[in-house]
Design a protein that fits this description.
2 copies of one chain form a homodimer. By secondary structure, the first copy, chain A, is an alpha+beta fold. Chain A contains 8 helices and 13 strands. Chain A has helices at about 40-50, 60-75, 100-105, 105-110, 115-125, 150-160, 205-210, 220-230, and strands at about 20-25, 50-55, 85-90, 95-100, 130-140, 145-150, 165-175, 185, 195, 235, 245, 250-255, 265-270. In chain A, a hairpin with a 6-residue loop joins strand 3 and strand 4. Chain A is globular, with a radius of gyration of 18 Å. Chain A starts with 19 loop residues before the first strand and ends in a 39-residue tail after the last strand.
Chain lengths: ~300, ~300
Amino acid sequence: MPTNSEAQDLYPSRGGAAATLAPRLDPVVHAPAERAPPVARQLIQAYERRGFLILQALFNDTELAAMQVELERLRNDPLLAQRPEAIRERETGALRTVFRVHRLSPLFAAVAADPRLVELARYLLDDEVYIHQSRLNYKPGFGGKEFYWHSDFETWHVEDGMPRMRALSISISLTRNHAHNGPLLLLPGSHRSYVVCTGDTPADHYQQSLVKQEYGVPSDDCLRQLAEQSGGIAAAIGPPGTTTVFDCNVMHGSNGNITPDPRSNVFFVYNAVSNGLREPYCGRPPRPGFIATRGSIQPLIPAPLELAARS
Amino acid sequence: MPTNSEAQDLYPSRGGAAATLAPRLDPVVHAPAERAPPVARQLIQAYERRGFLILQALFNDTELAAMQVELERLRNDPLLAQRPEAIRERETGALRTVFRVHRLSPLFAAVAADPRLVELARYLLDDEVYIHQSRLNYKPGFGGKEFYWHSDFETWHVEDGMPRMRALSISISLTRNHAHNGPLLLLPGSHRSYVVCTGDTPADHYQQSLVKQEYGVPSDDCLRQLAEQSGGIAAAIGPPGTTTVFDCNVMHGSNGNITPDPRSNVFFVYNAVSNGLREPYCGRPPRPGFIATRGSIQPLIPAPLELAARS
């Protein structure tokens, strides 16, 4: 694994840093301008400007139904529930998140490799890609918890040693997202600033941070600035199958959910193979491999999702 | 104070009751059909059907600005902060609620008595009215807490001894309410069912329940039924001054608020003088007078808000 010297940390945060907005040093769309994108160019322009794009009806009903069945199968798998990849609610014990679902589920492995996702990731990152992290999120109704504002990249950089902003997330909703069941909220344009956070990184921080964030939390002032520049908070709202593609550094979060309507999604993080992990910049040992893939990395080979062949 | 016999409790809840939806035994609009309402009749019909109505621009800009100034004045009043009426956030100590604001603030006393509110309350309740409870709510941005689903009447009946459903609330927003800063959510039509709750009522429950609800909480099954019948959750969204009038038994709550935008409102509960409090139906001592007015009750005398005369 490559080691880091002090000079190589282009995005310092925590460990004595003062809260501020620093400039982004990396492109948002890495592909050269002349290359034809795999989706409409207006979508790519919106992604560059806002830091995310939303695709409806990317998957057909059969594909979506298969994902929903798999979601329930995994929820009820007693052996899976004992694995470290399964994260439970602190108060109720209910399953909240399953990590590394692109390895634990053949169906979600196939979804992660589908060209509709991989080709978009390869274009935006202008590189071969691999899965840095994947997860299935179960957000129950009747009191699902909030997830406070954060930039994924800040965590992946500080705690995982991801050197540059050359990664993105794709979230596929498996339930309906409406305004009041805790949809993904994003601050458009926030991906252009790096929010330096105060505080330190405690040992084994990830075990707490998956349930409740306490470090890597942006200051109120930084959030207020980003919100003012944003022209208004955006929400990823839509029917099951709504697919949100967002830059690794866009500021996002979600409110809690008192409605009866659960909110589940599957979530893949694609990283450029040239942007593989180094040692964590916080100086702590790396987080487990099921949260942040490291070691010998194989580029994803795009392969169309073939449901018939699977039954 | 009138005493209760077992036979008089028309709306039993807690104390061994099983969770269920019971029928409402009282009218929603108490005025006779032929009486001319003080607002458009369609609004009254919507109130009867849905359990609430929303009025925009009921107050002019001068009046609204005066309320906003008063909101800040009270927030910064060090003597007020020491009074029992001032309720603070458990974690941060920030002011969350000021009760009995119709007595503690001359301005809000005048707002409570304004004919635009009082005449509507007198019409809907078909009686002289008085203020059962009033409060100023400060819901901060950056993590304001949720308020779980509840019927106010269930609490007022069980803990305060309000005999019948002949009361209503009027909430005037003093900040902008949008979909994501924890607006008031309502289940349309839920006011026609009485949600019987399980559990007991601990002594001095109100001290906890103002910060976190644990009793008088509807079951998931009851909420699911009400949500299915509702045709969709409604949200009280709008600019400052948006005025929501809602029946004492409509199921409502609010999500938390991670956005930077605070959400403050002033809130008056009007009760029919013929529906004055008896002993609490839970058998516990009554809650303090600043939460539930009892004793010798004087009907409100409507008096137009006169800001010029006050300066």
